Amino acid sequence: MSSVRAQITLGIAALLLLSLCSIAVGVGDIFNGNSAANIELMLSSRLPRTLAVLLTGASLAIAGLVMQSLARNRFVDPMIAGTGQSAALGILLITILAPQSTIMVKVLVASFTAFVGTALFLTLARKVSSKDPYMIALFAIIYGGIVGALAVAIAWHFDLLQFLDVWMSGEFSGVMRGRYETLWFIGFVMVAAWWVADRLTILALGRDTSIGLGLDYKSTLQIGLVIVSVISGLTVATVGALPFIGLIVPAAVSRMIGDDVRRAIPMVALGGALLVLVSDLIGRLIRFPYEIPAGTIMGVVGAAAFLMLIFSRSFRHA
């Protein structure tokens, strides 16, 4: 327990330090002596960007934790297993049918299609052998690829491939005051995840066991689906999809402290925020003053970390 507390304390300190670095890094110099202009730059761009990074990282990690409880598999990530692709497909469809729709309408449509896509994934995943956890992971990648391919085909037909690429590649360069505030709704969703955390822990034991323990299996499953779908819809519509956050962080945390969802949520949120913040900083600094999208950096880092998890004997036998 003391080791976990020490890790949380160290993580919070690192988060604060990196947040200050995020606010300081940029083409514009906030230490040029022009106080009024510097404050305006911080409030309109640097601070909103940093807050968006933290909210996105924490929420995607929690969505991954919930998704892994629903699928009963540590190798599932909403942004890979079709949820993110379904959300992007929903935004694409509403853009075609009603191009003048507000961001909130796009979020609602994206959340709905993410819900449908995730529910279909879980239904099909139950038909896959659960004895080998890698089979579920492989099926998730294939399913997400199919949904993504459908979105690409529709986007190509309507000459919207560039728009689809924006939604499928998470990046924060366009985040400014007035263009990220919908992410604050994620706070309510994270509270909902905390509220049902104990039920999600029981749900992960399996349908028959959880019903035998008195859990309302169907309603808990639906609540979990709503949590994952809303987070995915908000994230994809605002900053785009970021892969592997919902896979790496929950899997690593569960390896350290077990499968208690309520106990894992704070560490998962902290780890997700740190990981996305580091990815965003690397993307901003590696070719300064140009930027590499955080989603691209996360794709490289996440793939390497995923392979490490797969080849870790201690993790496989945990």
Question: Which runs of at least 5 residues are low in confidence (pLDDT < 50)?
Answer: none
Instruction: Tally the helices.
Output: 14
- Based on secondary structure, the structural category is mainly alpha
Q: Taking all residues together, what is the mean pLDDT?
A: 82
**Biggest pleated-sheet summary:** none
Binned, the helix content reads: over 70%
Range of strand content: under 5%
Which labels suit this protein?
mainly alpha; 14 helices; globular
Write the layout of secondary structure elements.
Blueprint: H1 2-24, H2 35-71, H3 83-97, H4 103-125, H5 133-157, H6 161-168, H7 186-195, H8 197-203, H9 207-212, H10 217-238, H11 245-257, H12 261-285, H13 294-311, H14 313-316
Model description:
The protein has 318 residues and is an all-alpha fold. The chain has 14 helices and no strands. It has helices at 2-24, 35-71, 83-97, 103-125, 133-157, 161-168, 186-195, 197-203, 207-212, 217-238, 245-257, 261-285, 294-311, 313-316. Helix 1 runs parallel beside helix 12 (261-285) and helix 4 (103-125) packs across helix 10 (217-238). The model has no long low-confidence stretch (mean pLDDT 82).
